[in-house]
Structures are given as structure tokens and as C-alpha cells.
Structure prediction request, 702 residues.
Amino acid sequence: MEIEPLRTESSITYANPDGTLTEESTTGPVRVKDESGDWQDVDTTLVFRNGAVQPKQAAAEIQFSDGGEGPLAEVTEGARSLGLGWDGPLPRPVLDGNTATYKNVQPNADLVVTALPEGFSHLLILNERPTEQVELRIPVTAEGLKLRETADERLLWESADGKDIAASPVPMMWGADERPAANEPEHVSDVTASVEGPAGDQTLVLKPDAGFLKNPDVTYPVTIDPTNTLLGPLTDTWVQDAAYPTSQRGSTELKAGTYNGTERARSYLKFDTSRFAGKSVVDADLRLFSHWSSSCSTDNAGIQVRRVTSDWDPSGITWSAQPATTSVGAPVSKVAKGYNATCPGGHVSWDVDGIVQAWADGQPNYGVCLAAVDETDPLTWRRYRSSNYVDGSHDSASEPSLIVTYNSTPAVPANLVVNPLRAEASLPTVSSLTPTLQAKVADLDAGSTLTAEFQVEPDPAHTDTTYTWTGKTAQVVSGALATVQIPTSAAVPDGAHLRIRARSSDGVASSAWSGWLAFRVDANAVLPADVPQHLQSGATDTASPLVSGVVTSPNGGMVEAQFRLHNGATTQMLGTQLVPNGERAGFQIPAENLTTGGPFAWSMRGCYAGKCSAWTANTAIATNPVAQPSASTAGTSVVLPLIKATVCTDSETCTGTTGSTLKVGAVSGKNWRGYLKADVSGIPAGATVVDAKLQLTELPPT
Prediction:
């Protein structure tokens, strides 16, 4: 069962029948809240809307041009926005899933823009070999941001105060021919990039290498990848030796291993694991979807998941500057999926219990690294889906996921009580041979249910019994009192000195034992409850009045209040309420009990373990029964004035008030109930009420 209050953009949590919780988290957002506050799955399917092209539901505000002049693509998150334009008017795009294609933006060249969950990427497709030098001049649009080149030739968006906000890898281009074992382009080249102009009026200038474009070995179409633009905190990326040495954070895949023994790839992922701090990890699995492997053979060195031990920037990581990792507790998978129909694409999982437990125990969470155990083994080449892989509507099956089942050790039980208990200066006295044991149990895990286990044994300060008993309560929710009664078959011996303790359990883990509570057994020790005091007949001008009084007992513990109604010469039992010693007990008399006869009066008494006080003196009740209307022939709306009354229910010093602001629930350290009576004189006698609404105005807290 899902625990909905724990749902986030990138995680969902379930309560398991055994008391554990399971959280499924991703490296990026898979759902967002709409304008009504309801969760919606990310859906980057593009549609024409509001004079632009927009994804149906993304994690940032994204829009593309629907043709003509103006920006090509923009992404906005909060007060920041950034985007790119195009040199000249654009044709109306052709939409397909999350891509928009602008045909022939240059001779024999198409522009393809793709919506990602938190940004966009765009490509220029050269369908034929160009006859002239190719140069792309892309206007930059930004609000509160500036584009600049880094020392390693990446493109970096920074804020006005110099903070890095978003980055893109080095612009690249590749031909259509592929390496069979790698399933990636055979010919790849960097694209020279520069940024011209001041902040607010910048242009990104790209100059593809003419030699690459003229190379007869390069097969067309050629794809030029200028940049990707992401504003969100996506935390998965990969780097690859010589071919892709800078972070590929905007990529739709993650790579690991090698296809030729020299070109190596590693992937880095980070999940939010803050919820597991201090928890016991029962099971943890890292799950990725493998869409390509270099073969179907499982006779390979395998891909290892290593815990990262130093910090890293998802945008700034490079092959030459990778964070440190540890192989301690690093699991390995040799599974191969995605090569052909014999081993089709599918999920691959790693058991990462030790890694997640290390984070839960306080080790810094810098994420994990995926790398081949032997980076010269060409059978280790793997390509997985990244968090950017969203082909239209969200598909949770393809997301990189961390699935963790965890548990909190329950708290030591509190408020240990044995009833019926009489508090005495020397030693508490239990007056029943089958007493009730109770304790408050609690657990930090939302939605968990708990039991309490009680142990009863001889008080070591005395030598009058060898009695022992152990028992468990039924399950209760966290924060509730867990209660069990010692059965008659295991009755405690009269006159014995005993002690009890308790511990709580969620079915997986148990708390430490509580301290001991010592008591003696005296079956004749129960005294009657006291006569109730501070009686009140609150809101007695209503059709269903509330009556109450404060009940006490020299035995302490819980006291039962009993209420009865007097109607002339007859007396009727109304009901009971069990409250802690010294608190106010109340009963609302049903209106049907006050419709005939009279005069009416009420009384109450207190009881403890079957021993009751005397009844209080009768207290008169003034009632105003509600007349039963008959059919009406007219349709009229009226506004009726109300008489207001507020009653305090739990303190002997409380008094009822009328005509004041209504108080309901816990207010100023006291518990309140409110009563209202309408002046129905404005409704014709015998009229039928078709519809009635009570309208109240909630005042701000004071």
C-alpha cells in the first residue's frame, strides 16, 4: 500500500505487510504537481499549444517555436530561463513524440529539437555532404544567466554572481555508419565552439571541421550536436575515454565497459537516500534497463557498481577528473541484454544492500559508479537507459531506479501501566488477579503497525512468588496504547510482589526493553470511585444537550463515568465514557430521549473496577425539541440567525459560554465542543426543508 504523503517527484514509498517500507526512487523527476496540486506523470509528448510547441507535462517550463521568427527553444525554472534561437525564420515543425523537426532550415539540413524532462537538446542533421564551409550562429536567450566556454571546451551557464547553473558537453558531430560491436557511430569529431557578445546579447558560434565533413569514409546524414540545455538537478551521466571525455548529462543513455579493449566508458548515478538515515536496510537493488550489450555471452568480467567516496558535479565530471570510488561491497553483474532477439533488452539489477547501508550509517552519499571489472574485456560493453530517456509519456520501467526496503527500530515503549492500579506511597497496588497491561508504542516509519510484548516476573526485592508470564498485544498504529489482559488461566497470585517491562516490535525489529515497573497484588485493595464533581449541563437549550462532570478515583488509572436520564417517575441508563483519573467525562443525550414526557433531569456516577460511587443529585434539563415539519407548497430561501454555545469538556474549571466565537477541538490548552441553534421561526410551520447549509467562517489563529 502506498504512503501517499511520502510521494515526491522522484520517489514513491509503500508500506509492506511485514512492517517494513519500500521506497522506489529515480535519479530525476518522473512526476510533477499540476496547477491543482495533483500529481501527474512526466509526459514530454509535444503538442501545439498557446502559440508554441510544448510538452504535455514536464518538470520545467519548456517551449519550442511553432514556426516563424523568435526563439527556437526555451526552458524556465523559477526566476531563471535560458534558450537558443535560430538565424532566420523557422518553418512549422513536424511533431513526433517528444521531437520537433524543422525541415530544410538550411539547404539539405533539418533541425531536430527534443524535449527532456527538465530541458531540451537539439541536433542539426546534414542530409548531404555540404559544398561550402558550414558555420552555425545560434542566438542565445537568457534571463539572469550568461553562457561561457570552460577550459575543457564545455559550455557553461552561470548566474550573475558567477555560480555554475547548468553545463553542456563539448559540441560533437558524427556520421551514420556504426561500429557493430558498440552500436554507436564509427566516425565522431568535436565541433569548435565559441561565444560572442556580452551577456544579454550572446551568440553561440559552431564551426564543424571541414575535413570531417569532406571525408569520403564518413557516411551521411551527419548529425551535429551543438548542446543540450538542462536546468534541473538530474544526477546521472557518463564519460567515455577519448570519444566522449566530458559529462554526457543530457544523454538518453548510460554506458559502461568497453567494446574494443581500449575505449572505456563509466557511468555515475546519485539518488536521494536521506530517508534511510539511521535505518536498517533490509534489501536494496539498483535497477537499470539495458538496451544494448556487445554480445549475449555472460562469460565476461561483468559490470561492477562501486560506491563513490568523493564529491562530483554531474555537469563537470570528465574522463580525466573522476571521483574516487571503493570496491568494498561492490556487486557485479555479468548479465547481457539487448544484443539481439536471443538476449533482448531488459532490466539488470545489482544487490547494493551494503552500499545503501553505508549511507544509512552516515557515510556521505556521493552516488555510485558503473564500470567494467576488467576494462580490457570487450564483452563488457553495456548501454542502459538514463533518466533523460522519455519517449513521450513516462515509462517507469526504463528509469534508473533504486529500490530499497528498510525498517526503523521501534522506540522503547513509554507510559507503562498496570490496571486496575491504586497508587500508594510505598508501592503501587494492583487489585485484580487478571490485570490489564498497557504501554504506548511508537515507530518513525510512516504507516507502521506495532505490537508490545510484556514480561511479568517476581520482584527481586521480595521472595513471595515464582510467577512469570509473557504475552503480546494485538497490532496498533504508531503512537497508540497497546493493551493486553492477563488471562484467567495465568492469573497472578494474590499477595505477590511482581514487576513488568515491555518492548515493541514492528514484525521485523524489536526495541530495547523498557525499565521495570514493580507492584504488589491485593485483590481487596480496590476502593470505590469518588462522586463526580463540577457538573455541567452545557448547551441545554439544544435538542441534544451535553452533560458532563469530573471523575476521580483513589485507585488512580482509568475511571468509568456512567450517565442516566430521569423522566418524571422513570429512570433510563444513557451510556458510559472511560477517561483518565481527574478528567472530565461527558455524554450527549440523544434528542429522541427528550421528545415526550418530562420534566427531565440527569445524574452521573464514577466507577473503578466495578466499584462505583453514589449517584450525583439530579440536575434539571431545559430542552427545546425540534418540531417535525410537514410538506410545504412554497419554495422560499431564508437565512436563519444562530444561537452559539461553546462547552469545555476536559477541565473542572471549564465553563460554557454563549454568543461568543465558537471553539472546536484543542484551543488554548483545553478541549472544546461547539453547539448551534437556529431560530426557525422564519420557516413556515409545516414546511418541508429541501436543502439546508451551515456556513461558518474560520478565523486565523491568535
